[in-house]
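Figure S7 source data.
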Amino acid sequence: MTHIGVVGAGILGLATARRLAAAGAEVTVLDKEGRVAAHQTGHNSGVAHAGLYYAPGSLKATLCRRGIGMLKEYCAERGLPYVECGKVVVARDQGEVPRLREIERRATENGVPGLRWLDAAGLHEVEPHASGVAALRSPYTAIVDFPAVTRAFAEDVTKAGGTVRLGFEVTRIRAMGGEVVVNEELVFDRLVVCAGLQSDRVARLAGDSPAPAIVPFRGEYYRLVPSRTDLVRGLIYPVPDPRYPFLGVHFTRRVDGGVDVGPNAVPALAREGYRRRDLRPADLWETLRWPGFRRLARRHWRTGLREMYGSAFKHAFAAEARSFVPELAAADLVPAPAGVRAQAVDPDGSLVDDFRIGRRGPVVTVRNAPSPAATSSLAIAEHVAAQVLEV
Ligand SMILES: Cc1cc2nc3c(=O)[nH]c(=O)nc-3n(C[C@H](O)[C@H](O)[C@H](O)COP(=O)(O)OP(=O)(O)OC[C@H]3O[C@@H](n4cnc5c(N)ncnc54)[C@H](O)[C@@H]3O)c2cc1C
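Tokens for the predicted flavin-adenine dinucleotide complex:
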């Protein structure tokens, strides 16, 4: 039997392990933390994206469309929450309408079902507290509990005879003679790396290229105080800036009934630092030394400073969100836990937009899997497993 190691017990590592175990492989998942979903998977917005924004034909577009259907079915099978509360993307002024039309064009080409273009009155009917000149509605965008989905995947892996070994940090990888040796201790026929914020480092351990490097971006959230959650029925998003892969501060209803506002996107001083004051010199040094980051910073310093200002001052964060939900007051917001995104950056300073999955001999590495990778996890798992089994 083929023995396959998987680095990372986030949603991608476990979805892939589950798929490989179902195909008859002997699977061992390794994670340095003491629990599954400890990083990005446990610190995200919990939205099952319908596939609105992504370039038609890209991996993001195809795997998100396939993945959301698989996720919905899986949640139904396992009795996990999956609520189709719907989403609106709001054009705040006429200047944003052409960009919203472009999102509508992409969404239509991607096959997103039930799309509806709304004028200001139509928006008011769907989201009475949102304000804009037009909006695009996606009724099947949903909310889920990604950590619960990930725990269910871990159960599937162990039920299929696989092993999930927590508290095991991969520090050495040696691929030779058709075998992959991890930490001079475990021997596999193949290895899959789904290491999220550490994916470039683990790829380098396996002799892969340093490019693209991971640049961590903190995403900070506030939560609406319970008396103000009626400001939002489902999910309300602004029209995103097409230069960035981030969606802009938005209003997200959670499966626990709360409403989060966020996340922003500020360069993080530690890859796994969830508090603003967290700084890890080795992480910061690696980011600053990466030529791609320096080029990115030179090109986008104005946006960076604006995001940092919004991060430092709650009134500025609230003002951004108030631009499409005018009744929001800074006093309605209380701080909520932040997340850190693993965003791959190429040496020329471009933010890698699509999912990127590479292979070097018997090692397959997920090098870039930002949002909507949690939504797409079951489809990404199919895609990665096919590559692994074909080695
Ligand atoms: C703020 C934020 C909001 C988001 N919102 C959404 C959303 O609404 N919808 C959506 O679809 N996606 C969203 N995403 C993206 C989504 O969360 C990620 O794409 C997804 O969780 C990636 O999963 P992963 O398994 O690749 O990474 P992770 O969940 O980060 O898991 C990687 C794992 O690898 C382990 N690891 C790393 N290095 C080692 C090592 N050397 N040895 C052993 N283990 C190691 C880590 O401990 C970790 O558990 C969001 C992300 C963020 C940060």
